[in-house]
Amino acid sequence: MYDIAIIGGGVVGCAAAYELSRYKLRTLLLEAANDIADVTTKANSAIIHAGYDPEPGTAMARLNVEGAALAEEICKKLDVPYNKCGAFVLAFDEADLAHVQKLYEQGVANGVPGIAVISGEEAKRMEPNLSDKVIGALYAPSSAIISPWEYALAMAETAVRNGVDIRTSSRVTAIKKVENQFEIQTSSGNYRAKYIINAAGVHSAEVHELIGEKEFEIHPVRGQYFLLDKSEGSRVTRTIFQCPTAAGKGVLVSPTVHGNLIVGPDAEPVSDGDDVSTTAEGLEYVKLMSQKSVPSTSFRDNIRNFSGIRSQSDRSDFIIEESHSVKNFFNLAGIKSPGLSAAPAIAKEAVKLLTGAGLELTEKSSFIDERKQIRFKELTDDEKNRLIAKDPLYGRVICRCETITEGEIVAALRSPIPPCSVDGIKRRTGAGMGRCQGGFCGPRVLEIIARELGIPRTSVLKDKSGTYILVGETKGGTGNV
Amino acid sequence: MYDLIVIGGGPAGLAAACEAYEQGLKNILIIERDRELGGILNQCIHNGFGLHYFKEELTGPEYAGRFIKMLNDTSVEVKLDTMVLDITKNREVHAVNTSDGYQILKTRSVILAMGCRERTRGAISIPGDRPSGVFTAGAAQRYMNIEGYMVGRRVVILGSGDIGLIMARRMTLEGAEVLACVELNPYSSGLNRNIVQCLGDYNIPLYLSHTITKIEGSGRVERVVVSRVDDSTKKPIPGTEISFDCDTVLLSVGLIPENELTKNAGIAIDPRTNGAIVYENMETSLPGVFACGNVVHVHDLVDYVTEESKRAGRAAAAFAKGLSQTDEKVLAMKTGNAVTYTVPQKLRPMRIEKLADIFFRVNRVFGEASILVFDGDGKQIAKFKRDYLVPGEMEHIVLPRKLLDTAGGDSLTVSIEEVQA
Questions:
Q1: Any idea what the CATH number is for the domain that residue A409 is in?
Q2: Does A447 touch chain B (CB under 8 A)?
């Protein structure tokens, strides 16, 4: 029996698990997919927003600014790639300038540090690849870029090390109130908990309605992206936003913490919240819109397209509240942008709601609040040699594009939340993220997964369930290789 | 201190090392990232290799085996399972493996023979879902021929490059059904013999001027949509969609020379080949560093890789022995009508013994045509007749030294002239 069950292993659920793991509680996190951070958390712009966007007075405004500050701390403590690279919002005409001014005022009201309105010349001096048509910009030095899936994983892994149980491949199918507890039926078995935190993202309304009345709706909005080769990674050094216009809300061009360039997203309402397909029209739109900001981007150097879903609700603000129809059931829903930025602050809000509902908190004296990843390519030559002497697997480079060693892949497979797929390894180590997109290292990674997990190679997945890679042996067979 | 470090133990690296050894170099090291020598030839279990060089038909592993055997009788050192992470301007090679750790190796000369990689789905932005079952043809070939696993049962192949064609036959022989081979261009980019032997013989339809416009599937690939494209804009034509129920998509949409090490060393790259700019002896812009094989430009036939790599091996040996010359005249090779690139990009006539080999590709299909060479003054100095020219087949001309000595100006231009019927 658990005190708290968190439904959903995206960044909000992981942040809640991390926050709750400070206390002497029995906490369970349930994730429908076979890995955590594998839905909206892995497919977004990867920005920790400064906080000038939300309207002052909203929960979004307050939690964005608080969350952004917490994110910086957490990334430092838990060794997550993070870079406070700053951001521009570009103005191309008078209407844009007025919008930039409004954002500036909102930023000031929201307590965003260091923001300023700068001239077009100043913007171009700082970012020489911007369009000549830029006439001014909002400059937000506290805007940051992050590795969103590593961020969520780091919080979840730390939660596990502090005693939280995580069950993946556990889709919640029914919730009942039995005595004073919830009985949660999932595809992996039944669990009991006194409180439920619903962080099920795009499916949060459905999860709530398994036991509660209809109180909100999720209207998923899809966004498509390009991810370009590292050769384009310094096309800009800050995140470059546009002002919304009649033509759309604008797309961003940004470096990533991994050294690539990300371009996107568009905003298209979709009926199926699981539909993360890309379309020729959507991608073309993103490309054209981005060229307004940065005309010289070389889309020939694209290495991957993807799309993600914003869990937009029928309300304008985040939904962070106890269900009106079910006591002890807390919704963290409608967490659209700036949800990634706000996540740790949302988690703290959730803990406040729980204590308000009578949950007693006792801090653990033994709380582990640090994490250290070995990233071979970031080590000095001496450190590399010492590491290889200790564990020779760090001397075998498996992913050449990103210089990821077998040692790092094996470490991921022995981590607190071991992945079961090639993409799970990619998210944890970076193997396969580079320009050849796993063309060379894919078969090697698959082999290591099979070996370490003791499963046949034909059972290794690319990503979520059903994404099998190999369909059997050839006529000649594998010859025990 | 090594005389020569060869980076890559595929066909280019093997031939270069063998030749450098023949030329008298003793301290040669080959660094190979895989667990055995031979490179991509090891997974090319089909025949057709060696017709030009050995005058007999070999499989890929047999072709590689000939060179590995030659190497066994030499003092050439080989480090397998070893990755080169950096090459510096002063020819230090940074390498790492499980037994030696991280090492910085010094050498008099370097040969870059890293080969190429495949273009991916991302490079051509195919829209749709992102299910499993989308492989580059070479990755699928590795799974099947090296590791013994099937990658799918119902297959659509995008691109008619040689690896895709070879895989169409291979998968058919393994019992898979290859539903279509889809090519964006109105012509195939593969060798004609592969079109006949890998598609024609198995009744696999080739859809020219078509492309995949959508991939569908929630877990594994379930369906692809193929559309005809407009030949001038390459844009899909609405209303021409054909749907194929399949579980696998193989991509054979081009190869890219792997020059990250080359770029980091500050060596000049030709944007037309994506490989290093090389002189007649395969020397790059960094003295003492040579390049050969698919890392310079993508070849159709390994036999030509071998010839080119032997040239690099000879030149590296001369450099390591201190036989380098000072240079006088340098001719820049320029691309004229319908020529997409040339290798080499620069010629130093003084260093050419008798004949200079020039390789290039054309950008469209020609019937009877002439290859014309003009000097820097615009004077035609050579003409070669061809019955046909196609983008999928690398062209080769040979220019005598004395022609280069007398050429006017400081450049040569290779151009194609169609012979009117």
A1: 1.10.10.1100
A2: yes
